[in-house]
Amino acid sequence: MTLLDSAPPATRPVLPPLRIGRHEVATPVVLAPMAGITNPGFRRLCREQGAGFYVCEMITSRGLVEKNPLTFRMITFDPDEQPRSMQLYGVDPAAMGQAVRMIRERDLADHVDMNFGCPVPKVTRRGGGAALPFKRRLFERLVRAAVDNAGDLPVTVKMRIGIDDEHETFLEAGRIAVDAGVASVALHARTAAQRYSGQADWSAISRLREHLPATTPVLGNGDIFSAADALRMVRETGCDGVVVGRGCLGRPWLFGDLEAAFAGRPLPTPPNLRQVSETLRRHAVLLCEHMGDHKGIRDVRKHIAWYLKGFAVGGDLRRALGMVESIGQLDDLLAQLDLDQEFPADAEGPRGRQGSPGKVVLPEHWLDDADDPSVPFGAELEHSGG
């Protein structure tokens, strides 16, 4: 019997607080870093809903070491944002070690997460992201370079099951990461070949939890679109917490639901369209504060369809909202909505990109030798921040 099975409703937490190194939060939830999404405005909006670890957009170790201006704009944190969680991407252990040492010495963040889960071709074709754990010696060098330079900053890793069904890496990579001294391991339960399609294989999270020491938290990621999904993942896999990505797109109040669920409390009433529109407007304001009015209002456009998913909104009004140019115009358009609509059942379930599976683009001869520790030529991404 698990803690989840034995806990009476609304009387005790479903899970203990999540501890990552010296940091602890009552709710065992992590916001997954998402490019173009998890900027300071969105993170603040989510933090206002509930407790957790909120990770910034992916930063390249090379961009940080070379003090790229865009990189430093991307690692902005609110004064009250604690802990400050930063995700690093890199393929070169030397650059990774330098970047983590810079983070520690300049007090740029309180927690470093390493990206070994990105499946996009521009990353995997250089041997990075989800492709890298296949090269187990290079993977070990990277993780050790980060941990050895981190001091008391906890280092964590996020990875996938493997490159494809024929090249699973997660069990060996998890053990290597733990032996190198990471504070936790998160698993997106898909292969790189799946990208975001199909269904996450939560049984892999169970296998990883069983494979690693109980003292190392294992976090599950994939197909968490509601608090019920999160509780079911914990029940079925025994994981120590969850990582939420696409499930919170246009739905930052999911973190409030998760906080209530993991505390054993009843869930809040889902918001009606009036409350959704108020949250959307606040999101827009926060983006404008962070990016400036022009960039901020344009950035919120991509979020609007996620916020309005399932609600009855006319096509012309949807199109106008998708081309909004100012906060004032946004206010005028939101006022035209039928704001008394209750939260629709059609708004539940998957959201964000799903796409289709495909062959993973890898460097030439990448699969020839898993023990080759060399850094691929031209492996680092362009030095343009994240």
TrEMBL record:
Region called Disordered, residue ranges: 344-386
Pfam families cross-referenced by the UniProt entry: Dus
Entry's EC annotation: 1.3.1.-
Keywords, in A-Z order: Flavoprotein, FMN, NADP, Oxidoreductase, RNA-binding, tRNA processing, tRNA-binding
CDD domains: DUS_like_FMN (cd02801)
Reactions accelerated catalytically: a 5,6-dihydrouridine in tRNA + NAD(+) = a uridine in tRNA + NADH + H(+); a 5,6-dihydrouridine in tRNA + NADP(+) = a uridine in tRNA + NADPH + H(+)
Needed co-factor(s): FMN
Residue span(s) of domain DUS-like FMN-binding: 31-327
Top-rank EC class of the record's enzyme: oxidoreductase
Tree of life domain: Bacteria
Role description: Catalyzes the synthesis of 5,6-dihydrouridine (D), a modified base found in the D-loop of most tRNAs, via the reduction of the C5-C6 double bond in target uridines.
Family: Belongs to the dus family.
Stated name of the protein: tRNA-dihydrouridine synthase
